[in-house]
Amino acid sequence: MQLNLSIPALLFPAISLTMLAYNARYLAIAALIRQLHKQFNETADSPLKRQIDSLRKRLGIIKNMQASAIISFLLSAITMFLIYVELNVWANIIFGISLVFLMISLVLSLIEVQLSTKALGIQLKNMEE
Prior knowledge:
single chain; 91% helix; transmembrane; DUF2721 domain-containing protein; membrane; transmembrane helix
């Protein structure tokens, strides 16, 4: 495949939007943690402990999602530079690595969504009881 500047450039808006979505998820979880912290200080409830454990895992996953997306973004920029200086073999290799990091980020996002759904299930179960 012939790699030109427009191919890695196509990833820029996709990765940027992905990072915005990840940041929104992070901010939502941060607000929830602050709310749960206040509740936990008032009552050390067992369901709150499970939610806190879930949030701790989710924060770690989101951190890795963001890191993977940023690495993908950086490698796409490096790819465009390598194409510019006509190091096409290296550009192809770096672009492939960039795509791998983007896929890792998306898989982590899927895992985080699953954990988020599970956490909501815990809250619904508590409300039913």
